[in-house]
Amino acid sequence: MSGTATSATTPATFLRRIIGNVQALLSLLVLLVILTLVALAPLVAGPDPTSADLSSAFGGPEPGHPLGFDSSGRDMWSRLLHGGQLTLGGAALALAVALTLGVPTGLAAGFYGGWFDLVSGWWVNLIMALPAMVVLLASRAVLGSTVWVLMVVLGILVSPSFFRLVRGTVANMRAEPYVDAARVFGLRDSRIIARHVLIVVRAPIIIQTALVAGLAINLQAGLEFLGIGSGDAPTWGAMLNEAFTNIHQNPLGMLWPGLALGLTSGSLVLLASALRDVLEDRDDQPHTSGPGEHPREADTPTTPRHAGARSELLSVRDLTITYPGADSRPNKVVRGVDLDVHPGEILGLVGESGSGKTQTAFSILGLLPAGGRVSRGSIRIGGTEVVGANERTLRRLRGRTVAYVPQEPMNNLDPSFTIGDHLVEPLCATARMPRSAAWKYARELLHQVEITDPDRILRSYPHQISGGMAQRVLIAGALSCSAELVIADEPTTALDVTVQAEVLGLLRRLRASRGMAVLLVSHDLGVVADLCDRVAVLHRGRIVEVGTTEQVLTAPESTHAQELRNAVLDDVPARQPWSPREVDAQ
Ligand SMILES: Nc1ncnc2c1ncn2[C@@H]1O[C@H](COP(=O)(O)OP(=O)(O)OP(=O)(O)O)[C@@H](O)[C@H]1O
Protein backbone atom coordinates (compact mmCIF):
# COMPACT_ATOMS: atom_id res chain seq x y z
CA MET A 1 0.00 0.00 0.00
CA SER A 2 1.28 3.43 -0.75
CA GLY A 3 2.24 5.99 1.79
CA THR A 4 0.94 9.45 2.27
CA ALA A 5 1.71 12.43 0.09
CA THR A 6 5.09 13.87 0.66
CA SER A 7 7.06 15.97 -1.71
CA ALA A 8 10.79 15.98 -1.88
CA THR A 9 10.98 19.32 -3.68
CA THR A 10 14.26 20.59 -5.08
CA PRO A 11 14.83 24.38 -4.96
CA ALA A 12 14.48 24.58 -8.77
CA THR A 13 11.16 22.70 -8.68
CA PHE A 14 9.98 24.86 -5.80
CA LEU A 15 10.82 28.01 -7.78
CA ARG A 16 9.02 26.67 -10.85
CA ARG A 17 5.94 25.92 -8.77
CA ILE A 18 5.98 29.41 -7.23
CA ILE A 19 6.19 30.95 -10.69
CA GLY A 20 3.31 28.73 -11.81
CA ASN A 21 1.11 29.89 -8.90
CA VAL A 22 -0.47 33.29 -9.69
CA GLN A 23 -1.22 34.13 -6.04
CA ALA A 24 2.32 33.31 -4.91
CA LEU A 25 3.85 35.21 -7.82
CA LEU A 26 1.77 38.37 -7.33
CA SER A 27 2.27 38.52 -3.56
CA LEU A 28 6.01 37.89 -3.98
CA LEU A 29 6.23 40.66 -6.58
CA VAL A 30 4.48 43.16 -4.29
CA LEU A 31 6.79 42.19 -1.40
CA LEU A 32 9.86 42.44 -3.62
CA VAL A 33 8.91 45.94 -4.81
CA ILE A 34 8.32 47.09 -1.20
CA LEU A 35 11.57 45.49 0.07
CA THR A 36 13.63 46.93 -2.80
CA LEU A 37 12.30 50.45 -2.29
CA VAL A 38 12.87 50.20 1.47
CA ALA A 39 16.39 48.77 1.04
CA LEU A 40 17.29 51.51 -1.44
CA ALA A 41 15.80 54.28 0.75
CA PRO A 42 19.09 56.25 1.08
CA LEU A 43 19.31 56.39 -2.74
CA VAL A 44 15.70 56.90 -3.80
CA ALA A 45 13.98 58.54 -0.80
CA GLY A 46 15.32 62.04 -1.38
CA PRO A 47 15.47 64.43 1.62
CA ASP A 48 16.41 63.49 5.19
CA PRO A 49 13.30 61.91 6.80
CA THR A 50 13.82 63.91 10.03
CA SER A 51 14.51 67.36 8.60
CA ALA A 52 11.53 69.59 9.32
CA ASP A 53 10.39 72.74 7.52
CA LEU A 54 7.33 74.22 9.21
CA SER A 55 6.56 76.40 6.21
CA SER A 56 5.74 73.18 4.25
CA ALA A 57 3.55 71.62 7.01
CA PHE A 58 0.64 69.65 5.50
CA GLY A 59 1.85 70.62 2.03
CA GLY A 60 0.59 68.52 -0.88
CA PRO A 61 2.67 66.60 -3.43
CA GLU A 62 5.15 68.63 -5.45
CA PRO A 63 8.16 67.79 -7.64
CA GLY A 64 10.74 65.90 -5.54
CA HIS A 65 8.12 65.27 -2.78
CA PRO A 66 5.58 62.87 -4.37
CA LEU A 67 3.54 62.28 -1.18
CA GLY A 68 3.68 65.78 0.27
CA PHE A 69 4.58 66.77 3.87
CA ASP A 70 3.48 65.92 7.41
CA SER A 71 2.54 68.30 10.25
CA SER A 72 6.21 69.27 10.84
CA GLY A 73 6.93 69.72 7.11
CA ARG A 74 8.90 66.44 6.85
CA ASP A 75 8.88 64.64 3.50
CA MET A 76 6.33 61.77 3.65
CA TRP A 77 7.91 59.70 0.85
CA SER A 78 11.28 59.80 2.56
CA ARG A 79 9.75 58.93 5.96
CA LEU A 80 7.77 56.08 4.40
CA LEU A 81 10.86 54.45 2.85
CA HIS A 82 13.18 55.05 5.81
CA GLY A 83 10.37 54.06 8.19
CA GLY A 84 10.06 50.77 6.30
CA GLN A 85 13.66 49.97 7.25
CA LEU A 86 12.84 50.17 10.95
CA THR A 87 9.42 48.51 10.68
CA LEU A 88 10.50 45.62 8.44
CA GLY A 89 13.94 45.33 10.09
CA GLY A 90 12.26 45.14 13.51
CA ALA A 91 9.86 42.45 12.28
CA ALA A 92 12.78 40.50 10.77
CA LEU A 93 14.63 40.66 14.10
CA ALA A 94 11.54 39.41 15.99
CA LEU A 95 11.18 36.59 13.47
CA ALA A 96 14.86 35.63 13.74
CA VAL A 97 14.59 35.45 17.54
CA ALA A 98 11.35 33.45 17.36
CA LEU A 99 12.81 30.97 14.83
CA THR A 100 16.08 30.58 16.74
CA LEU A 101 14.27 29.85 19.99
CA GLY A 102 11.23 27.95 18.72
CA VAL A 103 12.54 25.64 15.98
CA PRO A 104 15.54 23.90 17.63
CA THR A 105 13.72 23.48 20.95
CA GLY A 106 10.61 22.19 19.15
CA LEU A 107 12.77 19.71 17.20
CA ALA A 108 14.51 18.44 20.33
CA ALA A 109 11.30 18.26 22.39
CA GLY A 110 9.39 16.45 19.63
CA PHE A 111 12.21 14.05 18.73
CA TYR A 112 13.50 13.12 22.17
CA GLY A 113 10.42 13.75 24.34
CA GLY A 114 11.19 13.00 27.99
CA TRP A 115 12.23 15.64 30.52
CA PHE A 116 13.28 18.19 27.88
CA ASP A 117 9.82 18.04 26.30
CA LEU A 118 8.23 18.43 29.73
CA VAL A 119 10.38 21.38 30.83
CA SER A 120 10.23 23.22 27.49
CA GLY A 121 6.47 22.62 27.42
CA TRP A 122 6.14 24.38 30.80
CA TRP A 123 8.19 27.34 29.59
CA VAL A 124 6.19 27.64 26.44
CA ASN A 125 2.89 27.51 28.33
CA LEU A 126 4.21 30.15 30.70
CA ILE A 127 5.23 32.48 27.86
CA MET A 128 1.88 31.97 26.16
CA ALA A 129 0.04 32.80 29.35
CA LEU A 130 1.78 36.22 29.57
CA PRO A 131 -0.22 39.18 28.23
CA ALA A 132 2.03 40.34 25.35
CA MET A 133 1.15 44.03 25.53
CA VAL A 134 1.79 44.25 29.26
CA VAL A 135 5.15 42.51 28.86
CA LEU A 136 6.12 44.89 26.04
CA LEU A 137 5.12 47.95 28.10
CA ALA A 138 7.11 46.64 31.09
CA SER A 139 10.09 45.89 28.82
CA ARG A 140 10.01 49.41 27.46
CA ALA A 141 10.03 50.83 30.99
CA VAL A 142 12.92 48.61 32.06
CA LEU A 143 15.00 48.19 28.90
CA GLY A 144 14.36 51.52 27.14
CA SER A 145 12.33 52.44 24.09
CA THR A 146 14.73 51.26 21.36
CA VAL A 147 12.71 49.45 18.72
CA TRP A 148 15.27 46.63 18.42
CA VAL A 149 15.05 45.68 22.09
CA LEU A 150 11.27 45.59 21.94
CA MET A 151 11.47 43.39 18.85
CA VAL A 152 13.70 40.89 20.67
CA VAL A 153 11.07 40.71 23.42
CA LEU A 154 8.36 40.30 20.78
CA GLY A 155 10.41 37.48 19.19
CA ILE A 156 10.49 35.65 22.52
CA LEU A 157 6.75 36.13 22.91
CA VAL A 158 5.93 34.65 19.49
CA SER A 159 8.48 31.82 19.62
CA PRO A 160 5.94 29.35 21.15
CA SER A 161 4.04 29.33 17.86
CA PHE A 162 7.12 27.80 16.16
CA PHE A 163 7.85 25.52 19.10
CA ARG A 164 4.36 24.05 19.11
CA LEU A 165 4.21 23.62 15.36
CA VAL A 166 7.59 21.87 15.11
CA ARG A 167 7.16 19.80 18.27
CA GLY A 168 3.74 18.52 17.19
CA THR A 169 4.91 17.57 13.70
CA VAL A 170 8.09 15.88 14.90
CA ALA A 171 6.37 14.03 17.77
CA ASN A 172 3.89 12.59 15.25
CA MET A 173 6.61 11.27 13.00
CA ARG A 174 8.95 10.05 15.78
CA ALA A 175 7.26 6.65 15.76
CA GLU A 176 7.20 6.31 11.97
CA PRO A 177 8.70 3.01 10.82
CA TYR A 178 11.19 4.80 8.52
CA VAL A 179 12.64 6.67 11.51
CA ASP A 180 13.07 3.36 13.33
CA ALA A 181 14.56 1.89 10.15
CA ALA A 182 17.09 4.76 9.96
CA ARG A 183 18.05 4.04 13.59
CA VAL A 184 18.44 0.36 12.81
CA PHE A 185 20.77 1.31 9.96
CA GLY A 186 22.93 2.97 12.62
CA LEU A 187 22.33 6.60 11.57
CA ARG A 188 23.07 9.21 14.23
CA ASP A 189 20.18 11.30 15.58
CA SER A 190 21.63 14.46 14.04
CA ARG A 191 21.58 12.79 10.62
CA ILE A 192 18.06 11.43 11.08
CA ILE A 193 16.87 14.89 12.07
CA ALA A 194 18.63 16.53 9.12
CA ARG A 195 17.55 13.93 6.60
CA HIS A 196 14.09 12.78 7.66
CA VAL A 197 12.71 15.28 10.14
CA LEU A 198 13.66 18.68 8.72
CA ILE A 199 12.16 17.76 5.35
CA VAL A 200 8.81 17.20 7.03
CA VAL A 201 8.83 20.38 9.13
CA ARG A 202 10.31 22.82 6.64
CA ALA A 203 7.05 23.42 4.75
CA PRO A 204 5.01 24.28 7.87
CA ILE A 205 7.90 26.44 9.14
CA ILE A 206 8.06 28.45 5.91
CA ILE A 207 4.31 28.98 5.96
CA GLN A 208 4.32 29.94 9.64
CA THR A 209 7.22 32.34 9.03
CA ALA A 210 5.22 34.26 6.45
CA LEU A 211 2.24 34.45 8.83
CA VAL A 212 4.29 35.50 11.88
CA ALA A 213 6.14 38.10 9.77
CA GLY A 214 2.80 39.78 9.03
CA LEU A 215 1.87 39.59 12.72
CA ALA A 216 5.23 41.04 13.84
CA ILE A 217 4.96 43.96 11.39
CA ASN A 218 1.48 44.80 12.62
CA LEU A 219 2.41 44.43 16.31
CA GLN A 220 5.46 46.62 15.83
CA ALA A 221 3.38 49.24 14.00
CA GLY A 222 0.73 48.97 16.71
CA LEU A 223 3.30 49.70 19.43
CA GLU A 224 4.58 52.73 17.53
CA PHE A 225 1.03 53.88 16.86
CA LEU A 226 0.33 53.80 20.60
CA GLY A 227 3.49 55.79 21.17
CA ILE A 228 5.32 52.90 22.87
CA GLY A 229 8.02 52.75 20.22
CA SER A 230 11.22 54.58 19.63
CA GLY A 231 10.09 58.20 19.74
CA ASP A 232 11.36 60.30 16.85
CA ALA A 233 12.54 57.53 14.55
CA PRO A 234 10.38 57.32 11.43
CA THR A 235 8.42 54.07 11.36
CA TRP A 236 5.11 53.23 9.70
CA GLY A 237 3.41 53.02 13.10
CA ALA A 238 4.85 56.40 14.18
CA MET A 239 3.67 57.92 10.88
CA LEU A 240 0.17 56.56 11.53
CA ASN A 241 0.27 58.03 15.04
CA GLU A 242 1.31 61.47 13.74
CA ALA A 243 -1.28 61.38 10.92
CA PHE A 244 -4.02 60.26 13.32
CA THR A 245 -3.45 63.27 15.60
CA ASN A 246 -3.82 65.55 12.59
CA ILE A 247 -6.53 63.62 10.79
CA HIS A 248 -8.78 66.70 10.43
CA GLN A 249 -6.10 68.87 8.78
CA ASN A 250 -4.64 66.13 6.56
CA PRO A 251 -6.82 63.00 6.23
CA LEU A 252 -4.60 61.70 3.41
CA GLY A 253 -1.66 61.42 5.84
CA MET A 254 -3.11 58.13 7.14
CA LEU A 255 -3.30 56.68 3.64
CA TRP A 256 0.39 56.09 2.85
CA PRO A 257 1.59 54.28 5.99
CA GLY A 258 -1.75 52.43 6.13
CA LEU A 259 -1.31 51.32 2.52
CA ALA A 260 2.29 50.22 3.14
CA LEU A 261 1.21 48.18 6.18
CA GLY A 262 -1.85 46.73 4.46
CA LEU A 263 0.01 45.76 1.29
CA THR A 264 2.92 44.19 3.20
CA SER A 265 0.91 42.15 5.68
CA GLY A 266 -1.77 41.26 3.09
CA SER A 267 0.91 40.02 0.68
CA LEU A 268 2.51 37.97 3.46
CA VAL A 269 -0.79 36.27 4.32
CA LEU A 270 -1.54 35.54 0.64
CA LEU A 271 2.02 34.29 0.16
CA ALA A 272 1.67 31.97 3.18
CA SER A 273 -1.54 30.50 1.79
CA ALA A 274 0.00 30.06 -1.69
CA LEU A 275 3.12 28.49 -0.17
CA ARG A 276 0.89 26.03 1.65
CA ASP A 277 -0.57 24.94 -1.69
CA VAL A 278 2.82 24.81 -3.39
CA LEU A 279 4.74 23.06 -0.61
CA GLU A 280 2.02 20.64 0.39
CA ASP A 281 1.30 19.72 -3.23
CA ARG A 282 -2.30 20.85 -2.99
CA ASP A 283 -4.17 21.05 -6.22
CA ASP A 284 -7.56 22.69 -6.15
CA GLN A 285 -8.03 22.55 -9.90
CA PRO A 286 -11.32 21.16 -11.10
CA HIS A 287 -11.30 17.41 -11.55
CA THR A 288 -10.76 17.39 -15.27
CA SER A 289 -7.71 16.57 -17.24
CA GLY A 290 -5.92 19.52 -18.72
CA PRO A 291 -3.64 19.96 -21.65
CA GLY A 292 -0.64 20.28 -19.36
CA GLU A 293 -0.99 16.77 -18.03
CA HIS A 294 1.57 14.32 -19.20
CA PRO A 295 1.80 10.65 -18.55
CA ARG A 296 5.17 9.16 -17.67
CA GLU A 297 4.98 7.10 -20.81
CA ALA A 298 2.98 7.43 -24.00
CA ASP A 299 -0.72 6.81 -23.56
CA THR A 300 -0.84 3.88 -25.93
CA PRO A 301 -4.27 2.28 -25.85
CA THR A 302 -3.21 -1.11 -24.48
CA THR A 303 -6.17 -1.23 -22.08
CA PRO A 304 -8.68 -3.85 -23.14
CA ARG A 305 -11.78 -1.74 -23.19
CA HIS A 306 -15.06 -3.36 -22.25
CA ALA A 307 -17.12 -0.27 -22.06
CA GLY A 308 -20.34 -2.22 -22.59
CA ALA A 309 -23.17 -2.44 -20.08
CA ARG A 310 -22.16 -1.13 -16.68
CA SER A 311 -22.58 -3.27 -13.60
CA GLU A 312 -25.28 -2.02 -11.25
CA LEU A 313 -23.05 -2.65 -8.21
CA LEU A 314 -19.61 -1.22 -9.08
CA SER A 315 -18.74 0.20 -12.44
CA VAL A 316 -15.54 2.11 -13.17
CA ARG A 317 -14.96 3.76 -16.53
CA ASP A 318 -11.88 5.49 -17.88
CA LEU A 319 -10.59 6.12 -14.34
CA THR A 320 -7.51 8.33 -14.28
CA ILE A 321 -5.82 9.31 -11.01
CA THR A 322 -3.33 12.14 -10.94
CA TYR A 323 -0.77 13.40 -8.43
CA PRO A 324 1.36 16.50 -8.76
CA GLY A 325 4.66 15.17 -10.12
CA ALA A 326 8.15 16.06 -8.90
CA ASP A 327 8.56 18.45 -11.83
CA SER A 328 5.28 20.17 -10.85
CA ARG A 329 3.45 18.60 -13.81
CA PRO A 330 0.63 16.12 -13.19
CA ASN A 331 1.68 12.50 -12.81
CA LYS A 332 -0.96 9.90 -13.75
CA VAL A 333 -0.67 6.84 -11.54
CA VAL A 334 -3.86 5.16 -12.83
CA ARG A 335 -4.84 5.58 -16.46
CA GLY A 336 -8.12 4.86 -18.22
CA VAL A 337 -9.13 1.93 -16.00
CA ASP A 338 -12.43 0.16 -16.72
CA LEU A 339 -13.75 -2.30 -14.10
CA ASP A 340 -17.05 -3.94 -13.22
CA VAL A 341 -17.91 -5.94 -10.14
CA HIS A 342 -21.26 -7.69 -10.34
CA PRO A 343 -23.43 -8.56 -7.30
CA GLY A 344 -22.07 -11.64 -5.53
CA GLU A 345 -18.90 -11.75 -7.62
CA ILE A 346 -15.29 -11.78 -6.39
CA LEU A 347 -13.01 -9.82 -8.71
CA GLY A 348 -9.26 -9.95 -8.14
CA LEU A 349 -7.27 -6.82 -8.94
CA VAL A 350 -3.69 -7.97 -9.35
CA GLY A 351 -0.46 -6.36 -10.48
CA GLU A 352 3.09 -5.77 -9.41
CA SER A 353 3.93 -3.36 -6.59
CA GLY A 354 3.20 0.25 -7.61
CA SER A 355 0.86 -0.73 -10.45
CA GLY A 356 -2.01 1.29 -8.96
CA LYS A 357 -4.13 -1.33 -7.16
CA THR A 358 -4.47 0.57 -3.90
CA GLN A 359 -5.03 3.89 -5.65
CA THR A 360 -7.88 2.36 -7.65
CA ALA A 361 -9.41 0.91 -4.48
CA PHE A 362 -9.07 4.19 -2.56
CA SER A 363 -10.61 6.21 -5.38
CA ILE A 364 -13.67 3.93 -5.27
CA LEU A 365 -13.99 4.67 -1.56
CA GLY A 366 -13.43 8.41 -2.22
CA LEU A 367 -10.38 8.29 0.05
CA LEU A 368 -7.40 9.22 -2.12
CA PRO A 369 -4.45 10.57 -0.11
CA ALA A 370 -3.73 14.32 -0.11
CA GLY A 371 -2.65 15.53 -3.54
CA GLY A 372 -4.33 12.67 -5.41
CA ARG A 373 -7.42 13.34 -7.51
CA VAL A 374 -9.60 11.60 -10.04
CA SER A 375 -8.74 13.68 -13.06
CA ARG A 376 -10.97 11.79 -15.50
CA GLY A 377 -13.57 9.06 -15.60
CA SER A 378 -16.53 7.78 -13.68
CA ILE A 379 -17.05 5.48 -10.67
CA ARG A 380 -20.58 4.33 -9.96
CA ILE A 381 -21.50 2.41 -6.82
CA GLY A 382 -25.05 1.09 -6.75
CA GLY A 383 -25.86 3.57 -9.52
CA THR A 384 -24.51 6.60 -7.59
CA GLU A 385 -21.67 8.57 -9.16
CA VAL A 386 -18.73 8.85 -6.76
CA VAL A 387 -16.48 11.17 -8.78
CA GLY A 388 -17.25 14.73 -7.73
CA ALA A 389 -19.79 13.54 -5.12
CA ASN A 390 -19.99 15.49 -1.89
CA GLU A 391 -18.87 14.06 1.45
CA ARG A 392 -22.49 13.37 2.49
CA THR A 393 -23.12 11.14 -0.51
CA LEU A 394 -19.81 9.34 0.05
CA ARG A 395 -20.60 8.79 3.73
CA ARG A 396 -23.96 7.32 2.78
CA LEU A 397 -22.27 4.84 0.45
CA ARG A 398 -19.37 3.88 2.73
CA GLY A 399 -20.34 1.23 5.23
CA ARG A 400 -23.81 0.76 3.73
CA THR A 401 -23.19 -0.17 0.11
CA VAL A 402 -19.41 -0.51 0.13
CA ALA A 403 -17.13 -1.53 3.01
CA TYR A 404 -13.37 -1.84 3.34
CA VAL A 405 -11.09 -4.48 4.80
CA PRO A 406 -7.53 -3.19 5.13
CA GLN A 407 -4.12 -4.82 4.84
CA GLU A 408 -2.85 -4.13 8.38
CA PRO A 409 -5.69 -5.06 10.75
CA MET A 410 -3.89 -3.88 13.89
CA ASN A 411 -3.18 -0.39 12.51
CA ASN A 412 -6.86 0.05 11.81
CA LEU A 413 -8.07 -0.54 15.35
CA ASP A 414 -7.78 2.30 17.85
CA PRO A 415 -5.84 0.95 20.87
CA SER A 416 -7.88 3.13 23.26
CA PHE A 417 -11.16 1.36 22.55
CA THR A 418 -12.40 -2.17 23.03
CA ILE A 419 -13.40 -4.33 20.07
CA GLY A 420 -16.99 -3.92 21.24
CA ASP A 421 -16.70 -0.12 20.95
CA HIS A 422 -15.28 -0.46 17.43
CA LEU A 423 -18.24 -2.53 16.28
CA VAL A 424 -21.03 -0.87 18.25
CA GLU A 425 -20.23 2.82 17.50
CA PRO A 426 -20.87 2.61 13.73
CA LEU A 427 -24.01 0.56 14.30
CA CYS A 428 -25.40 3.25 16.60
CA ALA A 429 -24.26 6.11 14.36
CA THR A 430 -25.09 4.86 10.86
CA ALA A 431 -27.71 2.16 11.44
CA ARG A 432 -29.24 4.19 14.33
CA MET A 433 -29.49 1.05 16.52
CA PRO A 434 -30.08 1.39 20.25
CA ARG A 435 -26.88 0.53 22.15
CA SER A 436 -28.12 -2.72 23.67
CA ALA A 437 -29.34 -4.00 20.29
CA ALA A 438 -26.03 -2.96 18.72
CA TRP A 439 -24.09 -5.01 21.32
CA LYS A 440 -26.29 -8.02 20.58
CA TYR A 441 -25.79 -7.61 16.86
CA ALA A 442 -22.00 -7.16 17.30
CA ARG A 443 -21.95 -10.48 19.15
CA GLU A 444 -23.88 -12.09 16.30
CA LEU A 445 -21.43 -10.61 13.76
CA LEU A 446 -18.47 -12.08 15.62
CA HIS A 447 -20.24 -15.46 15.44
CA GLN A 448 -20.61 -15.02 11.69
CA VAL A 449 -16.88 -14.44 11.29
CA GLU A 450 -16.38 -17.68 13.23
CA ILE A 451 -15.09 -16.23 16.48
CA THR A 452 -15.94 -18.80 19.12
CA ASP A 453 -15.87 -16.64 22.29
CA PRO A 454 -17.40 -13.33 21.14
CA ASP A 455 -18.06 -12.01 24.65
CA ARG A 456 -14.37 -12.07 25.59
CA ILE A 457 -13.35 -10.52 22.26
CA LEU A 458 -15.93 -7.74 22.58
CA ARG A 459 -14.43 -6.80 25.94
CA SER A 460 -10.81 -7.03 24.70
CA TYR A 461 -8.58 -4.19 23.56
CA PRO A 462 -6.82 -4.58 20.18
CA HIS A 463 -3.47 -5.48 21.78
CA GLN A 464 -5.15 -8.38 23.55
CA ILE A 465 -6.11 -10.22 20.35
CA SER A 466 -4.08 -11.82 17.54
CA GLY A 467 -3.64 -10.42 14.00
CA GLY A 468 -5.94 -13.07 12.51
CA MET A 469 -8.58 -12.28 15.12
CA ALA A 470 -8.22 -8.54 14.40
CA GLN A 471 -8.78 -9.20 10.68
CA ARG A 472 -11.92 -11.20 11.52
CA VAL A 473 -13.12 -8.26 13.63
CA LEU A 474 -12.57 -5.88 10.71
CA ILE A 475 -14.42 -8.23 8.39
CA ALA A 476 -17.24 -8.31 10.95
CA GLY A 477 -17.17 -4.48 10.84
CA ALA A 478 -17.44 -4.59 7.06
CA LEU A 479 -20.45 -6.89 7.35
CA SER A 480 -22.11 -4.87 10.08
CA CYS A 481 -24.06 -2.56 7.83
CA SER A 482 -24.79 -5.30 5.28
CA ALA A 483 -22.54 -3.76 2.61
CA GLU A 484 -23.14 -5.27 -0.82
CA LEU A 485 -19.53 -4.79 -1.89
CA VAL A 486 -16.41 -5.31 0.21
CA ILE A 487 -13.10 -3.87 -0.98
CA ALA A 488 -10.37 -5.99 0.58
CA ASP A 489 -6.85 -4.59 0.13
CA GLU A 490 -4.37 -7.44 0.55
CA PRO A 491 -6.46 -8.71 3.50
CA THR A 492 -4.16 -11.62 4.27
CA THR A 493 -0.71 -10.17 3.59
CA ALA A 494 -0.01 -9.32 7.23
CA LEU A 495 -1.12 -12.75 8.47
CA ASP A 496 0.77 -16.02 8.74
CA VAL A 497 0.00 -18.81 6.27
CA THR A 498 -2.40 -20.80 8.46
CA VAL A 499 -4.41 -17.74 9.45
CA GLN A 500 -4.37 -16.58 5.80
CA ALA A 501 -6.12 -19.78 4.78
CA GLU A 502 -8.70 -19.36 7.56
CA VAL A 503 -9.49 -15.77 6.55
CA LEU A 504 -9.76 -16.70 2.87
CA GLY A 505 -12.08 -19.56 3.77
CA LEU A 506 -14.16 -17.14 5.82
CA LEU A 507 -14.45 -14.67 2.93
CA ARG A 508 -15.51 -17.50 0.62
CA ARG A 509 -18.17 -18.73 3.05
CA LEU A 510 -19.46 -15.20 3.67
CA ARG A 511 -19.83 -14.63 -0.04
CA ALA A 512 -21.83 -17.83 -0.32
CA SER A 513 -24.03 -17.12 2.71
CA ARG A 514 -24.58 -13.37 2.25
CA GLY A 515 -24.14 -12.97 -1.49
CA MET A 516 -21.79 -10.03 -1.05
CA ALA A 517 -19.38 -9.05 -3.81
CA VAL A 518 -15.66 -8.56 -3.16
CA LEU A 519 -13.04 -6.49 -4.96
CA LEU A 520 -9.90 -8.25 -3.80
CA VAL A 521 -6.68 -6.25 -4.20
CA SER A 522 -3.75 -8.64 -4.17
CA HIS A 523 -0.39 -9.39 -5.64
CA ASP A 524 -0.63 -13.00 -4.49
CA LEU A 525 -1.86 -15.15 -7.38
CA GLY A 526 -2.36 -18.08 -4.99
CA VAL A 527 -4.94 -16.06 -3.04
CA VAL A 528 -6.55 -14.91 -6.27
CA ALA A 529 -6.74 -18.46 -7.66
CA ASP A 530 -8.30 -19.60 -4.40
CA LEU A 531 -11.00 -16.97 -4.17
CA CYS A 532 -11.75 -15.01 -7.33
CA ASP A 533 -14.24 -15.55 -10.13
CA ARG A 534 -12.56 -13.05 -12.43
CA VAL A 535 -9.24 -11.26 -12.48
CA ALA A 536 -8.15 -7.84 -13.78
CA VAL A 537 -4.40 -7.35 -14.27
CA LEU A 538 -2.97 -3.87 -13.71
CA HIS A 539 0.37 -2.78 -15.08
CA ARG A 540 1.70 0.75 -14.61
CA GLY A 541 -1.75 2.11 -13.94
CA ARG A 542 -3.50 0.38 -16.85
CA ILE A 543 -5.66 -2.73 -17.03
CA VAL A 544 -3.81 -5.01 -19.43
CA GLU A 545 -6.02 -8.07 -19.16
CA VAL A 546 -9.42 -9.05 -17.74
CA GLY A 547 -10.90 -12.52 -17.76
CA THR A 548 -12.04 -15.46 -15.72
CA THR A 549 -9.53 -16.57 -13.11
CA GLU A 550 -8.92 -19.81 -14.94
CA GLN A 551 -8.32 -18.09 -18.25
CA VAL A 552 -5.97 -15.39 -16.88
CA LEU A 553 -3.98 -17.78 -14.71
CA THR A 554 -3.74 -20.73 -17.09
CA ALA A 555 -3.59 -19.01 -20.47
CA PRO A 556 -2.72 -15.34 -19.97
CA GLU A 557 -2.73 -13.27 -23.14
CA SER A 558 -0.82 -10.17 -22.07
CA THR A 559 2.91 -10.20 -21.43
CA HIS A 560 2.44 -8.71 -17.97
CA ALA A 561 -0.08 -11.33 -16.88
CA GLN A 562 2.33 -13.99 -18.18
CA GLU A 563 5.17 -12.39 -16.23
CA LEU A 564 3.08 -12.34 -13.06
CA ARG A 565 2.21 -15.99 -13.52
CA ASN A 566 5.82 -16.93 -14.26
CA ALA A 567 6.88 -15.19 -11.05
CA VAL A 568 4.95 -17.82 -9.07
CA LEU A 569 7.46 -20.45 -8.06
CA ASP A 570 5.06 -23.43 -7.98
CA ASP A 571 6.50 -25.19 -11.05
CA VAL A 572 10.11 -24.37 -10.30
CA PRO A 573 12.21 -27.22 -8.82
CA ALA A 574 13.03 -26.62 -5.15
CA ARG A 575 16.55 -25.46 -4.36
CA GLN A 576 18.94 -28.14 -3.05
CA PRO A 577 19.87 -27.89 0.64
CA TRP A 578 22.84 -25.61 1.25
CA SER A 579 26.21 -27.34 1.42
CA PRO A 580 29.61 -25.92 2.45
CA ARG A 581 30.98 -27.08 -0.93
CA GLU A 582 29.01 -24.21 -2.62
CA VAL A 583 31.18 -21.74 -0.77
CA ASP A 584 34.33 -23.61 -1.72
CA ALA A 585 33.31 -23.59 -5.34
CA GLN A 586 32.98 -19.76 -5.46
N1 LIG B 1 0.41 9.77 -1.89
C1 LIG B 1 0.98 9.59 -3.08
N2 LIG B 1 1.57 10.61 -3.74
C2 LIG B 1 2.12 10.44 -4.96
N3 LIG B 1 2.15 9.26 -5.60
C3 LIG B 1 1.59 8.21 -4.99
C4 LIG B 1 0.98 8.31 -3.70
N4 LIG B 1 0.51 7.09 -3.33
C5 LIG B 1 0.83 6.27 -4.35
N5 LIG B 1 1.47 6.93 -5.33
C6 LIG B 1 1.99 6.36 -6.57
O1 LIG B 1 0.93 5.69 -7.20
C7 LIG B 1 1.41 4.53 -7.82
C8 LIG B 1 0.50 3.38 -7.48
O2 LIG B 1 0.55 3.17 -6.07
P1 LIG B 1 -0.35 2.05 -5.36
O3 LIG B 1 -0.18 2.21 -3.89
O4 LIG B 1 -1.73 2.08 -5.89
O5 LIG B 1 0.39 0.73 -5.84
P2 LIG B 1 0.00 -0.77 -5.50
O6 LIG B 1 -0.21 -1.45 -6.80
O7 LIG B 1 -1.12 -0.83 -4.53
O8 LIG B 1 1.36 -1.26 -4.84
P3 LIG B 1 1.59 -2.13 -3.51
O9 LIG B 1 1.15 -3.52 -3.87
O10 LIG B 1 3.06 -2.05 -3.30
O11 LIG B 1 0.77 -1.50 -2.41
C9 LIG B 1 2.84 4.30 -7.35
O12 LIG B 1 3.70 4.63 -8.41
C10 LIG B 1 3.02 5.29 -6.25
O13 LIG B 1 4.30 5.84 -6.30
TrEMBL record:
Short name of any one Pfam family annotated for the protein: ABC_tran
Per the record, the major location class is membrane
Ranges annotated as spanning the membrane: 24-45, 86-110, 122-141, 147-166, 197-217
Q: Classify the source by domain of life.
A: Bacteria
Which InterPro entries does the record match to this protein?
A: AAA+_ATPase (IPR003593), ABC_Ni/Peptide_Import (IPR050388), ABC_transporter-like_ATP-bd (IPR003439), ABC_transporter-like_CS (IPR017871), MetI-like (IPR000515), MetI-like_sf (IPR035906), P-loop_NTPase (IPR027417)
Ranges for domain ABC transmembrane type-1 = 84-280
The record's subcellular locations are: Cell membrane; Membrane
Q: Which SMART domains would you find in this protein's record? A: AAA
**SUPFAM superfamilies from the entry?**
MetI-like, P-loop containing nucleoside triphosphate hydrolases
Q: How does it sit in the membrane?
A: Multi-pass membrane protein; Peripheral membrane protein
- Alphabetic keyword roster: ATP-binding, Cell inner membrane, Cell membrane, Membrane, Nucleotide-binding, Translocase, Transmembrane, Transmembrane helix, Transport
Start and end residues of each ABC transporter domain: 314-565
Which family, according to the similarity comment? Belongs to the binding-protein-dependent transport system permease family. Belongs to the ABC transporter superfamily.
Name of protein: Dipeptide/oligopeptide/nickel ABC transporter permease/ATP-binding protein
- Organism in which the protein naturally occurs: Lipingzhangella rawalii
